[in-house]
Amino acid sequence: MYKMPRIWLDYCEFLCMQCQITKTRHVFNRALQALPISQHHRIWPLYLKFVSSKGIPETAVRIYRRYLKFCSEDTEDFY
């Protein structure tokens, strides 16, 4: 079950609608740790959208930097 990206996405989407920012961020992190790297591209768009919408710039910068380590070809889009 932990290797199924659809379940993680559904759970993350549900948590995004809640007001528990830290818990949601922890679940995104768990999803990225549990899934193989070949599935990370399915999680990152929702994670970036979530963190951008919450108005927490320090956290957003850390998460975007982490994303750019995973997907360095998008570096030009953020600089």
From TrEMBL:
<feature type="domain" description="Pre-mRNA-splicing factor Syf1-like N-terminal HAT-repeats">
    <location>
        <begin position="1"/>
        <end position="73"/>
    </location>
</feature>
<keyword id="KW-0507">mRNA processing</keyword>
<dbReference type="InterPro" id="IPR055433">
    <property type="entry name" value="HAT_Syf1-like_N"/>
</dbReference>
<dbReference type="GO" id="GO:0071014">
    <property type="term" value="C:post-mRNA release spliceosomal complex"/>
</dbReference>
<dbReference type="GO" id="GO:0000349">
    <property type="term" value="P:generation of catalytic spliceosome for first transesterification step"/>
</dbReference>
<keyword id="KW-0508">mRNA splicing</keyword>
<dbReference type="GO" id="GO:0071007">
    <property type="term" value="C:U2-type catalytic step 2 spliceosome"/>
</dbReference>
<dbReference type="Pfam" id="PF23233">
    <property type="entry name" value="HAT_Syf1_CNRKL1_N"/>
</dbReference>
<keyword id="KW-0539">Nucleus</keyword>
<dbReference type="InterPro" id="IPR011990">
    <property type="entry name" value="TPR-like_helical_dom_sf"/>
</dbReference>
<dbReference type="InterPro" id="IPR045075">
    <property type="entry name" value="Syf1-like"/>
</dbReference>
<comment type="similarity">
    <text>Belongs to the crooked-neck family.</text>
</comment>
<keyword id="KW-0677">Repeat</keyword>
<protein>
    <submittedName>
        <fullName>Pre-mRNA-splicing factor SYF1</fullName>
    </submittedName>
</protein>
<dbReference type="GO" id="GO:0000974">
    <property type="term" value="C:Prp19 complex"/>
</dbReference>
